[in-house]
Amino acid sequence: MILRAAAETADTGFSNRQLLPEGRLTGPMPWVIAVMMFLTVLATAGGLSLHASASAINADVSDRVTIQIAEPDPLVRGQAVQRVVTLLQGSGDAGGVTVVPESQLEAQLAPWLGSDLKLGDVPLPALIDLDLAVPEAGRASRLAELDKQVRAINANARVEPHATYLTPLARLVSGIGWLAFGLVALMATATGAVVVLAARGAHAIHRGTIDIMHMLGATDAQVARLFQQRMTLDAAFGAVLGFTGAVVVILVVGRSVAAVMSDLVQSAGLPAWSWLVLPLLPVAGIAVAWISARITLQRALERSL
What we know:
Number of strands: 4
Strand order of the largest sheet: 2-3-1-4
Structural class: alpha+beta
């Protein structure tokens, strides 16, 4: 039977249907690649979304400043707010000056202090938001100068740059994103290792048939091509299956993120341009499988001579 299969293979240009088992799924390799591709796409999407979130945080808070006036006397607090706003409006580097309404402060405190909160019961500070358009080199000195100016207006006033609190968070988010990309590299390496093991196993199982094909005049390139084509098809099946499953998960998670009323959470959404990158992952996975199978089979055939 082996002789007949080998003869038929030689007569038909070494068709892989005679050498390899029928069907597309030859062992567990396609399913392992599907799992690897599923995790790779999710890790890549996570890394891209985290880097986008870190960039958004840095862009939003780099120039954003809040001036807090914690004056218990409402009359004195109101006068201080007017004087600070006048100071900021006369400054050439302060833009987007906005006094946070007391109703907004009350709404933000309601979950902790109750919906029946009255501002007269709790001395709430006045908040003034602004964008300070100052170069990075002179930002620290300008903030110190502004803090001195507002303290001269009211001793209970202080300047709070948003970057002080959120820049460490942006660094953490960016670091986790790089960790996700590191996991992608590890899974790509693991995918190549799986293909190498599968190629070696296929070579060992069909060693007798390969020897007969060599005696009939088949070259190493022809034999390697048979295994390479089959393993590439298996890798393509697994890559497409894993990619499809990951896309479904990303879409479901994306809808959940969009439903959360939080600017910080929504900033972690996947950028639109990422959908041009993610489809390249299964293509890259198939390429890795193709190269790994080719190199492994060629070396195995050279050693068997």
